Amino acid sequence: MSVTASSSARQSVGNMAEADLLTALKQRSPQAFSALFDTWSDKLFRLATGILEDDAEAEGVVQETFLKFFEKLEQFEPRAKVSTWLYRVAYNASIDKIRKRRPAQMWLGNDDGDGAEFFPGNLADWRYAPEAWLSSLEAQRELTRAISALPEKQRLVFRLRELDGFSTAETAEILGISVGSVKVRLHRARLLLRETLADYFSERMKREQLL
Amino acid sequence: MKCEDLVAYLSEYIDNDLNEALTAEAQLHLATCHNCRVVLDTTQKMILIYRRQQRQAIPAARRQRLFTQLQSAFLNKSEPTP
Predict the structure, then answer these.
(1) Interchain CB contact of A123 with B (< 8 Å)
(2) Cβ atoms A22, A82 nearer than 8 A
(3) Residue B5's domain spans which residues?
(4) The pTM is what?
(5) By the CB < 8 Å criterion, does B20 face chain A?
(6) The CATH number of A131-207 is which of 1.10.10.10, 3.60.21.10, 3.40.50.1820, 2.30.42.10?
(7) Scanning A27, A111, A115, A124, which has its CA 20 to 30 A from the CA of B33?
(8) How would DSSP label each residue in A124-135?
(9) A8-101: what fold?
C-alpha cells in the first residue's frame, strides 16, 4: 500500500534502461544525449531552484552537473546509478553557491536536533473530501506554502523521496547524510504537511457545512 | 501498540519499512483506532496531492540555450569509443 514506490527516475530513461543509456552515451550518440537531457535537466533544475531560488544560478548548476558528468562518463561502470550521481553533484554545486552567498550560515548539517516529536493535532476526517477540493488550486497553494515553510533540510528530503522517487538510501547518498537522518526528516515533514492540509480541509468543511 | 507508537512508526509504515512483527501490530492498531487511520490515510492523500502539482520546468529560452551548449560540449568531448 506504499505511496512511495515510484522509482521511475532511476530505473529508466524514456524507454532506455540506464545501463543501455550509458553505453550509448559512451558512443557519443546524439539520441542518448537528448534522452539524458530530457530526463534530467528539469529535475536537476527544480532541485537547484529549490535550494537557490534563482533561475540563472540554477541553470548554471545544471550546466556544471552535465559537464562534470561528461568528464566522468568513461569511468562509469555499466551498473552505476546515473540518477543518484547527477543529483548528488547538482546538490553539492547548489550548496557551494549557497555557501558563497551566505558563508556564515550553516546549511543542512547532520544535526536533526532532539526537539519534542510532533504529534498530529488536527484529526479532521477529510479522507472523503470531494475530488474537486483535493485537486483545487487553493489546496495546492496551501501545500506549497507549507512546503516553503519547512526547514530546508526537511524540504529537500521530502522532495527527493516523494517527487523524485529516490529511495531512503539514495536520498542519504545524494545529501551526504545518514539513512536515519533521512527517515527522521521525512517523518517530520510528512506530519507537518499533513497537519497543514488537515487545518485547511477542516476549515473548508466547516465553511461548506460538511463537518 | 498505542497511538503514540503508531505515529512514531507512521512514516516507516507508509514506506513498508517496518519488520513483520511491527507491521502486524500497526495493522492491528489501525483496524480499531479511527484517529490513527485518519492520520495515516490523510498523510497518504497529502503525498498524492503533492505529486499532482504542476512541475516546474526550465524556462524555454534557457532550456534551448542549455541544450545547445551541452550538446556541443558532449559531441565534441572526444571521439566515439570504437
Answers:
(1) yes
(2) yes
(3) 1-53
(4) 0.80
(5) no
(6) 1.10.10.10
(7) A115
(8) ---TT--HHHHT
(9) Rna Polymerase Sigma Factor; Chain: A (1.10.1740)
